[in-house]
Amino acid sequence: MAIQGEDRANPVILYLHGGPGEAQSPFLDMFKTWLADFTVVNWDQRGAGKTYEKHGDATPDVTLDREVVDAIALTEHVLKTLGKKKLVLVGQSAGSALGLKVVQRRPDLYYAFVGTGQTVSVVRSAEWQEKQINVPATHDAAEMKTLHQWAITSPPDRPYLKRMMDFMAKPESASWVKGVDFESGHIGRQMQSFDAMTDALDLPVPYILIQGRADWLTPMAVAKEYFDKMRSRDKVFVPIDGGHFACFTNAGMFVAALRKHVLPLTRT
Hints:
Blueprint: E1 2-4, E2 12-16, E3 39-42, H1 49-55, H2 64-82, E4 87-92, H3 94-105, E5 110-116, H4 122-133, H5 141-151, H6 158-168, H7 174-193, H8 196-199, E6 202-203, E7 207-212, H9 220-229, E8 231-232, E9 235-240, H10 246-249, H11 251-261
Parallel strand pairs: 2-3, 2-4, 4-5, 5-7, 6-8, 7-9
Antiparallel strand pairs: 1-3
Helix pairs in contact: 1-7, 2-3, 4-5
């Protein structure tokens, strides 16, 4: 766990990384823009990053449900450590699916849930991607690989992906890379069966969707369809310039949306 901030009085964000397995610990500097307004907590999930480095392949019980339990336990620890009543949960990519499940189970711990690079359904995303590049809708492993390879070429995402690839080329990244394979290998199929349209239509906390317009991995059109159908006490949709990693590549607009739509919720 890493805690970054400039003022202990600021509200707290718990960030759930994507992947599965793409722990954010090597890239903590990317949260710099967030820190004037929020204290940010990062956690390398069970089987990923420094958590995998500590326990390796002996890491037990790597399931999506256990990661929900872990996220709740970590939230309670952070609230006690920092002396807060609630925090804001932010989930990116696969972390956004995890986040939906977390706030459904323990809404009392969270002011709001912020989804970005929102995972709705692997199948629904694939159906959108098929229309963009005109490939046969086989939905087999070969097609899914082709769709993924195309989706990660979205121009706004290239600086972030270059940063990741440069890190992965270094010897010190070896355990991080193994963690990506380990966590994704254990919960990847559970993520593939997740569909927010049926699994998370009702959220008991405010929902703020901040989505990159050029997100080809978790397309904005699919995320907006989910947003329009889901029900919550309050919800806000904020499209911003950028792709799947817009919260980092366009941190200015992302944090501006947090400041406008999330900060007021932490003052209630």
